Amino acid sequence: MSQKPKQSHGLAVCPGCAEPLDSGDRFCGACGYDLSAVPAAGEGPDRPTVAIGTPVNWPDAPPREPGSLSTMTQHPGDLPGTDSGGHDLPPAAAPTGDFELAAPDPRAAVRVDDPVVAPAAAQAPAPEEAAHGPALCVACRAGRVDTDGYCENCGHAQPRERDHMERELGGVAAVSDRGLRHHRNEDAFAVSSTTLADGSPATLAVVCDGVSSATRPDEASAAAAEAAGAALLAALPRGTHPQQAMHEAIVAASRAVNSLAEKAADGEPQRNAPACTIVGSVVADGLLVVGWVGDSRAYWVPDDRAAPAARLTEDDSWAAQMVAAGLMNEAEAYADERAHAITGWLGADAYELDPHTAAFKPDRSGVVVVCTDGLWNYAEGPEDMARVVPADAADRPLHSARVLVGHALDGGGHDNVTVALVPFAVPPQGAGPA
After folding, report:
1. Helix 242-258 crosses helix 217-235 at what angle (to 10 degrees)?
2. What is the distance of C-alpha 291 from the center of its chain?
3. Which of 116, 164, 303, 315 is the least buried, fewest Cβ under 10 Å from its Cβ?
4. How far apart are CA 120 and CA 161, in angstroms?
């Protein structure tokens, strides 16, 4: 979707023409923009934050502040996450594979999204097909569907298995839909539940959005979702801190996507390698943990709608970069046609892996909305998302995920739409073992 080099003047792309910049540039080589006028990091206006308290300690939480959440969200790159002792998480391991990654040409590192694979159980054939062979045509209900996916009677193309996927497991649910404009679904998800080392429950959701300008984006998102979900299911029962487990899951997803890249004729990794974004959430032992790379998002929506909702992630995107540099306000940046160019993604041609993680401790029950931009384009602000999330989302996550996908389709369905809902329950005050 966009360039990812990190520059001394704080910009990866020119604010005038969106062309990639080099660290030593004073003027943009494409349009002549004077980069010396750009505020240095920390000098511009503060970027919007969710002002909700102080960092969570593990396993003890700090005293709760009034409001819905008690932990400040971290900006991309500000804080890589901490372990149970409050120390920085270990750096991401180098990508593995049968080739070494060369530094890509900045002008080739452009990612633009045009606008699940769910676990195997979610893709099982329909009972009718499993028991009776090929399914009947969805259009004429008379012809058999051939191996190419067309009706032998009326010729109607049949929906592919990834065109619409749903899953509910252990109180967490997800729905993914191709949308109304795309010819295939390039989103993917993984949802599951497990237990921590002490036997307490944990639920997780991972949502990935394939980058449409890359090769095989549908494979990239599927590989990332599967790898991240598997990593979380392996790490949490071992007693790994949920925030560190999320960090490690994103690293695992990155390796899985990198492994899809092919060598170019010169032996280097292909420039336009398979790529995707990722966002995930874990709810465990009173903590709400999120992690992400790219512009897929997580929102917090409390059951009590009188309390404020919050966006828990901050996009790796051109728009967010313009806001952070103080060159535009948020409304102006997201109205620009370059808003959805991303500056962070998973893929062999990404400049570096920079997973973002944050931990929160809500003081009331609610639900975490984990979604691709196919949904949040139609409910961008936290208050907008809270308005479209059904009031009983925590009790009926699958139904509510369907409602949210329907909201995006009703709005135009310009992109693939994927949403997972992860309920977060806080016991009533005074509740405890009898």
Report:
1. 150
2. 8
3. 164
4. 11
Query: 304-326: string of b/e by CB count within 10 Å (b at 16+)?
Result: eeebbbbbbbbbbbbbbbbbbbe
Residues 6+ positions from 218 with CB-CB distance below 8 Å: 162, 184, 185, 186, 188, 210
80-107 pLDDT, tens per residue? 343 333 344 444 333 333 323 223 333 3
Given pLDDT bands bounded at 50, 70 and 90, which one contains residue 121? very low
C-alpha–C-alpha distance, residues 243 and 84, integer Å: 9
In angstroms, the Cα distances linking 293 to 200, 209, 250, 351, 355 are 28, 11, 8, 13, 6
User: Terminus-to-terminus CA distance in the chain, angstroms?
Assistant: 55
DSSP three-state, residue 358:
strand
Q: Could you tell me the two tokens for 18?
A: 């969106």
Cα gap 182→88, rounded to integer Å:
41
Q: Which of 53, 92, 77, 87 is nearest to 357 (CA)?
A: 77
Q: Please give the Cα distance from 91 to 177 (Å, whole number).
A: 35
345: Cβ contacts below 8 Å, ≥ 6 apart: 1, 4, 111, 211, 275, 276, 277, 293, 294, 316
**362 pLDDT higher than 90:** yes
When pLDDT is cut at 50, 70 and 90, the band that residue 429 belongs to is low
Q: Which residues pair with 151 in a beta bridge?
A: 145
Question: pLDDT by residue (tens digit) across 177-213?
Answer: 999 988 899 999 999 999 999 999 999 999 999 999 8
pTM above 0.85, yes or no: no
Residues 6 or more apart from 201 whose CB is under 8 A from it? 170, 193, 194, 195, 284
Is residue 239 over pLDDT 80? yes
DSSP string, 70-127: -SPPPPTTT---B-TTSPBPPPPPPP-SSSPPPPPPGGG---B----PPPGGGGPPPH
Question: Phi-psi category of 413—alpha, beta or left, where left has phi over 0 and alpha has psi -120 to 50?
Answer: left
Type of residue found at 103: A
Cα four-point dihedral sign 293, 352, 274, 182: positive
* Tokens read off for 73: 């969200």
Q: Tokens 């329907």 label which residue?
A: 406
DSSP letter assigned to residue 160: P
Is pLDDT larger for residue 398 or for residue 86?
Answer: 398
pLDDT for residue 167? 96
